[in-house]
Amino acid sequence: METWEGLPSVSLVPTNPKAPQMSAQDSCLSLIKYLLFVFNLFFFVLGSLIFCFGIWILIDKSSFVSFVGLSFVPLQMWSKALAISGILTMGLALLGCVGALKELRCLLGLYFGILLLLFAMQITLGILISTQRTRLERRVKDIVMETIQNYHAHPEESAAEESWDYVQFQLRCCGWNSPQDWFRVPSFSSNESEVHRVPCSCYNSSATNDSAISEKLSFPHLSRLGPPARPGHNTDLCAVAANSDIYSEGCARSLQKWLHNNLISIVGICLGVGLLELSFMTLSIFLCRNLDQVYDRLARYI
């Protein structure tokens, strides 16, 4: 009977302890790579949608209003902002997608640098808002009072006025300090009557069922087609008497209440965006620093 004592023993389990560690690290890098790709692909699609909405508003605002179902939104002012934001989001997401999928260190480094710059800008903006709060409030008040004083003075340039109408409509307020801010506006002054007038956005539609005023609240200048009205025509000026059912509170106080009620949501959104940027920066720099190891192992396997 033959014996196998002289033969060397063969183990089916790898004796090199580094082999499973290398395999686990490769799997981790692959996971990070595809996570970075998928997340940036999502933001690329999101940026494309934002860009398309911005272009849609620029080309045909009336159809967008009917599609969304909003009749009172300062769309023209924000359409360019939406388009630019969409392009920037698409460009940044494209850097992350291509850099992660193709494992290109230069693109990953550029992606990390842009995210770091955005994060630093947000931190700086937060510090400036907290330290320069009084100056910022004074500047906002000056801009609002200038917008009120020049209301409808140039009908072809109504973006700021539409935005302020939207603020009054949403916050249920009138003027900055009070409705009396509108009493000295030339557009609402009339020599024929001593009754003061205010914009239709000051009208409290919930206090009455006046259908004539409710129809004016749709603001014809938001849905008009063709070129803007000439400066000499005031066909788009919507006004109501100040002694009617209007909001009595100024928007300065209403804005403070809104910020106080939504402070947690605002802080949560800012923290969420910051954490998302930090996560993407961590993934990109980790993948970028370990590309040399990936290349060495690929060369070894080949």
From TrEMBL:
List, alphabetically, the InterPro entries matched. Answer: Tetraspanin/Peripherin, Tetraspanin_animals, Tetraspanin_CS, Tetraspanin_EC2_sf
Residue ranges crossing the lipid bilayer per the database entry: 34-59, 80-101, 107-129, 263-287
| Major site of localization recorded for this protein | membrane
Membrane topology, from the record:
Multi-pass membrane protein
UniProt-annotated location(s): Cell membrane; Membrane
Q: Keywords, A to Z? A: Cell membrane, Disulfide bond, Glycoprotein, Membrane, Transmembrane, Transmembrane helix
Q: Which residues form a coiled coil?
A: none
Task: List the disulfide bonds in this chain.
Answer: 173-202
One Gene Ontology cellular component annotation held by this UniProt entry? plasma membrane
Superkingdom of origin: Eukaryota
Q: Which PANTHER family match?
A: LEUKOCYTE ANTIGEN CD37 (PTHR19282:SF263), TETRASPANIN (PTHR19282)
* Protein family per UniProt: Belongs to the tetraspanin (TM4SF) family.
Subunit structure, as described in the record? Interacts with SCIMP. Interacts with SOCS3. Interacts with DECTIN1/CLEC7A.
Q: What is this protein called?
A: Tetraspanin
The organism named in the record is: Suricata suricatta
